[in-house]
Every structure is written in structure tokens, then in C-alpha cells.
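User: My instructor asked us to take a sequence, write out its structure as C-alpha cells, and then describe one feature of it. I'm not sure where to start. Here is the sequence I was given:
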Amino acid sequence: MTCILTQNLKRSLKNKQDPFSVQNLYYNQQEDFYVCPAGQKLSFIGHATRVSANGYTAQVSCYQARRCEGCPMRSGCHKAKGDRLIEVNHRLNKLKDKARERLLSEEGMYHRSKRPIEVEAVFGQMKSNNRFTRFTMKGLDKVAVEFGLMAIAHNLRKWAKKWKDKAFIGKPGGKNSLFAINQAINMLKSTKHRLAA
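Assistant: Let's start with the prediction itself. The C-alpha cells for your sequence are:
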């Protein structure tokens, strides 16, 4: 998982530093055109519909250059046979800008500072250690039950560890209580499998 995150981070940094990347091209919003690093104008040629792997439909705007042949920067710009063609989802870019603005605001910075303390460790425990990376059931009600069972099991596991760390097992009734918690966790797992069936 760490390897995937590192690769995504490297790819993101590479795109930010790449002058030929669509996100780094100059955009004239009033006249609706892009300009490549060689000074070539990419004019608007129409709209297109794209469907993502998840089935989400999006409208994109298409822009194309007219004189890429003979450009000294072409090898770094694109590998297409004809002139460069780019597709831009303006709605997505506006939503990203809005999200970035919120994240960088004073309130956003406050909530982001609390995030690693409150939820990141829990998600890491559930996804990586418990291998809970995908819901096995469909429908909001069943998904809510499934996640609720995972949350209960997570809290019981923390509770058991806290008792163990405090040498609770050595106290009267401690072993029985720890056994009861483990039994409850196993019962929750079996209930989840019965619901999935």
C-alpha cells in the first residue's frame, strides 16, 4: 500500500512540474482557448461525453492545435500523429478549485490538523490490518450494518488491548472478561457472513 501511495505521489509531482501537462497550460477563459509552451493556440472544437470505469458520465470540452508539424517541442508535448488534442472537464476543475479553497481556509486547516489524530489510524487498521477494503453487501441499510459491525469489532479489540496492557488478565474475572470479548468479536464476524449470504 505504501508503494502505491509513493507511486501516486511521484506521478502527481511529475504532472505539476511538466509544462506540457494540460493542467499547466495557459487558459484564456474569456475567449476559451489554451496555449501550449511553444505558443501554439489550442482552440475549442466541441463537446464530448465520456464514461468513467465506475459508470459516471461527464461532459468534456475538446481543444485542438492547428500547426504541430515541425514544432521543436513536439516530442515532449505529445505522440499523436496529427495535431495535439486535449479534453478538459471544466466542471471538475471548478469543483477541485472549490475543494482546494476550503482545504486551505482557516477552518479547513483546523479540521485537517485533527484528521490524522481522529480517523486515519482507524481507517488504516480496518483497511490494512483487517483487510476491510470493500463492502460485501449491497444497499445502504446492509452497508450500514456491515460497517457498524466492523466499528463494534474495532472498538472491542481496542478495549481488550487496553485491559491487557493494564494487566487486567491477572485480576479476578479478567481472563473470563477477555474471553467474552473475543467470543463477541467472533460472533460479529459470523453475523456478518450470515448477512452477506
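For the description part of your assignment, you could build on this observation: The chain has a mean pLDDT of 78. Try explaining in your own words what that tells you about the chain.
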